[in-house]
Amino acid sequence: MKNFEQKVLKKLDEIISLLPNKEVIKQLKPLELEDNNFRVNSDGWEKITVDGIKYLQSPTKDIWELLEGEYSGEQIFTWEAAIRETKKAGKRMPTDEEWTELFGDDDHENFKKENFPNPVCCGFRDTNGIYYGLGSSLFLWSSTESSSTSAWRRAIYLTYSTVYRDANTKTNGFSVRCLRD
After folding, report:
1. 131-134/75-77 β-pairing
2. pTM of model > 0.85
3. CA–CA dist 131, 92 (Å, integer)
4. How many angstroms separate the CA atoms of 141 and 152, rounded?
5. CB-hemisphere CA count at 13 Å for 156?
6. Among 131, 101, 133, 129, which Cα is nearest to 115's?
7. Mind listing the pLDDT tens digit for each residue in 68-117?
């Protein structure tokens, strides 16, 4: 029996050695972001104004589209809406680990925003419906939860050269950038 087990283990080692490792997989298909923020069809959404900002609100009240200025058409999603809608579209957001890979390494001071194509600084929407950082910051969801009520995000500020990583409540509205197929 011992001889049989050794043969099986040897065969398993041979099979495993033929499988591509993580580094080989990365070389075969490097991670790339789509050129623009993710959007869904907003036909028929309710038009609302909060704190002087006009936007559309989805029937599920978890996606918002800016209506005025240079950010008109940009959409902000709760984390749950981002997961749901990207899945429906056959797309996916980067995981927290993939964002780290896309921006450099996991030393927060080395995340470089020049590794990010076409940043559109449409800020974020808090749970009270108020926008913050419009024109000066971009907040992006990752697909990775950090707890039952929060998920990892990246924050890009025009005035800083780094990209910041932190966990934030899933009910805030952030932009979504998907991985290229």
Report:
1. unpaired
2. no
3. 25
4. 6
5. 23
6. 101
7. 989 999 999 999 999 999 999 999 999 999 998 887 655 545 556 666 76
